[in-house]
Design a protein that fits this description.
Shape: globular
Structural class: alpha+beta
Order of helices and strands: HEEEHEHEHEEEEH
Number of helices: 5
Radius of gyration: 16 Å
CATH topology: Glutaredoxin
Distance between the termini: 39 Å
Helix content: 25-40%
């Protein structure tokens, strides 16, 4: 129960932080789950990480297709596997349209999440989902640009990580489009992603 409350709090915090940032920037915010073109300077930005597909994945290499990006870690007990399973279900429902998007899982646990560990973890989910990792500095820089928050918490067995449960959506130009909430209704998500793919 405590873990669920922490997840909710972190998810709520990211929405509040983004809303405050946008308000300060003078951007009218109709809702983070709706398209708002001026947000590129507020959420998102240049990044470069190592990818499970081999080579480097970056904001530039992903341009040309919309992107769904989620920050998590492979030892996550509930939020991460649930989110990736939900995303896998949605990808299947999109059919051939799924190929018109990129899907990225960014590990915020470089100390334990080796490339092989991430590959093994993602083998349980839809193959469209690509894993990415980097140095602590690279990951922290990308998370900061996306307004994603994560925090290592010590436990008697080692540590866990509290993190934002939001999935970020970027359009084909690399600009912020909106978000997917944790366990958002699949039908709503499919409709949202179809609009993103269509560029509307």
């Amino acid at each position: 129960m405590l873990h669920a409350l922490r997840v909710f709090a972190w998810g709520l915090l990211i929405v509040v932080v983004a809303a405050v940032a946008l308000s300060t920037a003078g951007v009218k915010l109709p809702g983070l789950t709706q398209r708002a073109l001026p947000l590129a300077s507020v959420i998102g930005g240049p990044f470069e990480l190592a990818a499970t597909t081999g080579g480097i994945v970056s904001n530039e290499s992903l341009k040309g297709k919309p992107l769904a990006v989620f920050f998590g870690y492979t030892f996550c007990p509930d939020v991460c596997p649930t989110t990736l399973l939900d995303l896998s279900t949605v990808i299947k429902q999109l059919g051939t349209e799924a190929d018109r998007m990129n899907y990225l899982f960014v590990s915020v646990d470089p100390g334990r999440d080796t490339m092989e560990q991430i590959k093994l973890y993602l083998s349980s989910f839809d193959p469209h989902i690509v894993g990415a990792t980097g140095t602590e500095a690279q990951i922290a820089d990308m998370a900061r640009k996306f307004r994603a928050i994560y925090e290592k918490v010590a436990t008697k067995d080692g540590y866990t990580i509290n993190h934002t449960a939001t999935t970020y959506l970027m359009d084909a130009r690399g600009q912020f489009y909106g978000t997917l909430a944790y366990q958002e209704n699949a039908g709503v998500v499919v409709a949202k992603l179809k609009r993103l793919i269509a560029g509307t």
